[in-house]
Design a protein that fits this description.
- The structure is a homodimer of 124-residue chains.
- Chain A is of the alpha+beta class and 124 residues long.
- Chain A has one domain: Ubiquitin-like (UB roll).
- Helices cover 13% and strands 30% of the residues of chain A.
- Chain A is built from 2 helices and 6 strands, in the order αββαββββ.
- Chain A has helices spanning 3-8, 39-48, and strands at 19-25, 31-37, 52-55, 60-63, 72-79, 86-92.
- In chain A, the strands form 2 sheets. In chain A, strands 2-1-6-5 form a 4-stranded mixed sheet, with helices on one face. A two-stranded antiparallel ribbon of chain A has the order 3-4.
- Chain A is globular and about 35 Å long.
- At the A-B interface, α1, β1, β2, α2 and β5 of A face α1, β1, β2, α2 and β5 of B.
Chain lengths: 124, 124
């Protein structure tokens, strides 16, 4: 195996052959989105320097930005301690979210998903 | 339903009743770990102000820090645009990772999972 294939083989894929990828803007450290990778999506991401994900709803690969122009270039990719989550540090062009917001967690315009409640007091 | 229950009902749980939670240090914006929540783990997290997760391997709840002392206090919890990922902004006491490193993605001591390769050139 190539060195790349050895590294891809370290990932502990789930029963669907997928692992979640946390996508973070490399310099500001904003968390932009969560997406899913299979081995081929990870291979394409690491060999092209642009993120390719697996769409669970459409059951197909999608290269981020091909439709919107809002591409992500890879700065760094890290595997977690037990191999079942990946952190992608990227440089995001424009908004990451299909709703037009910078991040998928920036749902200021979507009252229904405008964050979850957190109690004022966190006393145990 | 209480307001809290209304919000919990917004989450698009997967077929196992779980959703991934990205856990980020609220001020430095380090991504600490990825963990899994079900509705009850989210409820406990939001009502106590301390993170409780669902362990897929042990099939039980675990409140972060009960064994290690390395607790996480919640600052903010956000749902993503399509409701199937949660971002938890926390204040992490000590290391987040069971290996003793600050984050689960800081595998400097684990050669086998010391990051994935990224090509020098990202030309398409």
């Amino acid at each position: 195996m190539t060195d790349l294939e050895t590294r891809i083989a370290q990932v502990a894929w789930n029963s669907d052959g997928l692992t979640p990828a946390i996508v973070q803007q490399w310099d500001t450290r904003e968390v932009l989105m969560l997406a899913w990778l299979d081995a081929e999506a990870l291979r394409r991401t690491l060999t092209t320097g642009r993120t390719t994900y697996w769409s669970r709803s459409r059951q197909e690969y999608w290269r981020k930005g091909d439709t919107s122009g809002n591409i992500q270039r890879i700065h760094e990719a890290r595997l977690d301690c037990d191999g079942d989550a990946i952190l992608l540090l990227v440089d995001q062009t424009g908004p990451a979210c299909h709703t037009g917001t910078r991040t998928c967690f920036d749902a200021a315009d979507l009252e229904a998903v405008d964050g979850l409640a957190v109690p004022e007091s966190d006393a145990e």
